[in-house]
Amino acid sequence: MNSPAAWQPQHDLNLPFAAGPRVQRLADYAQSGQTLSTEQLLGVAGARVLFANYPALRADFDAPWEGATEEAIDRWLLDHAAYISTSQAAAQGINTPIALDDRRVTGWRPPRYGRAAVLCAPASGQVLFDIKGIGVPPDEAPQLPHSNGLLTLAEAVHEVLMEHLVFAAMNHAGAAITPLPAYALIDLGFDALWHDGRAAEPAVLLLRRACTRPRCQWQRYWQGPELAGALMQAELLLRRYGLTASSCGAVRFHLCRENGELQVRRDEQRLAVSAQVAATLHRLLSDTRGA
């Protein structure tokens, strides 16, 4: 048995990830039609890396990683990502006190990026990370319970687990769909508060590969049948493996066959569907073995 003094923490996530393009320039967001808002972010003192996917970091960045230790990469992550928004730092009753240092950096938020922001390399437009849990924008105040600006440890671990479950499912299915990799999880050293009987939870940052999103995800925009069909196919494929991309519990649709006829229910209320829609649903159910 190793003695406590000899024990070294191991937090290399070291899990499979999909190689692929990432957003490298702020101009890439403008090319996709997204207007970025800028703000000053505050450095968080005492943050620490909980775990990281070092192979993904080495693959995606041109930093001089050769010979670099995991500890050196951790320091690079903390130097470039351990920040919080000004509104979050000033909030009362939303979280325990936040220890700040004298670092200041500019952050960019694409549309509808409530608790996330994009960070760049110092004094450049070179995008590094898409960071979730960085706090609400400066023109907003965090609100309990669903808009507190923070990401809890449990939420972040769930996202990372889902990433790798989806990766495994799509790989097994032979589908050309892969999730964006998480680079690292950073403990910010303070807790999210709830005031509803729940215990305080550690607040963390989730560093992700930067990407642009379809317009329908950040603006009222008709997604069109091609994208809608692709999203439906992906969702039905996930459900073959007991997974779902849906996080909404307010509205539920149930598709089944009763006495040989297709039945569609929304929140247990039966819906009438056209013959064309019914034919499409029949085909999708058959394709995903849901029949």
Can you put this structure into words, describing what you see?
The strands form two sheets. Strands 1, 2, 3, 4, 5, 6, 7, 8 and 9 form a nine-stranded antiparallel β-sheet that branches. The N and C termini lie far apart (54 Å). Helix content is 27%, strand content 25%. It has helices at 27-31, 54-60, 70-81, 86-90, 153-173, 224-240, 275-287; strands at 37-44, 48-52, 83-85, 100-109, 116-120, 127-132, 151-152, 182-192, 201-208, 253-258, 261-266, 269-271. With 291 residues, the protein is of the alpha+beta class. The protein folds into two domains: 9-213, no CATH class; 224-287, no CATH class.
| Shape category | globular
Average residue-wise pLDDT = 84
Kindly provide the radius of gyration, computed on alpha-carbon positions and rounded to a whole number of angstroms: 22 Å
> First CA to last CA: what distance?
54 Å
Report the sheet-strand fraction. Answer: 25-35%
User: Based on the structure, what is the oligomeric state of the protein chains?
Assistant: single chain
